[in-house]
């Protein structure tokens, strides 16, 4: 039996596994285009742009930035290619208010009909709506200088974050590890004290991440090539965000318990899905409230 026949038998028998692997690879890169491999006009534009800015001091009375003559698609390719993670850059320029409103209305419909967090995750991933988790940057004071998004990033061999957001401000880089739980769940049970199963699951997962990161942060940054790109993030700048429930399900007891957990934790935030919608609705202003 030749190699080709053996491979065909293997792929047929393991189709589901291979499909999942391919889907995971695609999700780790946000785009269908590979921004690490420019060809043709893109390669020429990148060369022209980079040569212009490598001249040193430039007399702008005699020369103009070549970026000005390129359309948005070309600008995006240049920006992504020159970034630290070309295929994970969150691109947010020129997003107009009309398109933002359409997107947030579509998102609300998905959330309203979702039975659990997987319905929302499927919507984001199948349609590459990466701006939805990226909008969580608006909860923080970083991400206005650089923004990266990594879906399903591994923490060791047995855990993964739904999303890891990496953003930079004048103080350096910070991370946000995001866990999505069900929008249909309350935060506490009807007795007003015990946490719901979704809240327990989400907070338990985040606690595991925190414990692992505190002992393995060097391993994490090496494995995911942050270190080789000059990105070093201290534990104090690693944040955790749980997305759960809806605003109209957050009764006084829910809000009180949620706020107490946040105040007693380090770098933890808990937001509901309506807050995410609020952030998406303001994406015409970018991914940060800071400028």
TrEMBL record:
InterPro entries: SduA_C. It comes from Paenibacillus yanchengensis. It comes from the Bacteria. Residues 115-275 form the Shedu protein SduA C-terminal domain. This is Shedu anti-phage system protein SduA domain-containing protein.
């Amino acid at each position: 039996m030749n190699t080709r026949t053996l491979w065909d038998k293997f792929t047929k028998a393991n189709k589901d596994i291979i499909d999942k692997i391919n889907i995971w690879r695609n999700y780790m890169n946000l785009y269908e285009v590979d921004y690490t491999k420019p060809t043709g006009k893109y390669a020429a534009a990148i060369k022209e742009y980079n040569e212009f800015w490598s001249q040193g001091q430039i007399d702008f009375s005699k020369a103009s930035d070549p970026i000005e003559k390129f359309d948005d698609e070309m600008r995006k390719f240049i920006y992504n290619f020159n970034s630290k993670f070309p295929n994970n850059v969150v691109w947010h320029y020129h997003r107009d208010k009309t398109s933002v409103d359409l997107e947030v209305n579509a998102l609300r419909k998905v959330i309203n009909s979702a039975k659990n967090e997987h319905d929302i995750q499927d919507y984001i991933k199948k349609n590459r709506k990466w701006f939805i988790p990226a909008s969580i940057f608006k909860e923080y004071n970083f991400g206005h200088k650089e923004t990266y998004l990594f879906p399903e990033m591994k923490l060791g061999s047995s855990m993964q974050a739904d999303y890891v957001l990496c953003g930079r401000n004048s103080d350096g880089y910070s991370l946000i590890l995001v866990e999505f739980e069900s929008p249909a769940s309350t935060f506490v049970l009807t007795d007003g004290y015990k946490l719901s199963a979704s809240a327990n699951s989400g907070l338990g997962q985040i606690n595991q991440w925190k414990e692992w990161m505190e002992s393995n942060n060097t391993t994490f940054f090496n494995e995911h090539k942050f270190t080789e790109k000059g990105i070093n993030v201290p534990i104090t700048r690693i944040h955790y965000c749980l997305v759960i429930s809806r605003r109209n399900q957050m009764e006084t007891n829910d809000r009180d318990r949620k706020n107490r957990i946040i105040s007693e934790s380090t770098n933890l935030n808990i937001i509901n899905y309506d807050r995410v919608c609020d952030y998406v609705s303001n994406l015409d202003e970018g991914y940060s409230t800071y400028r």
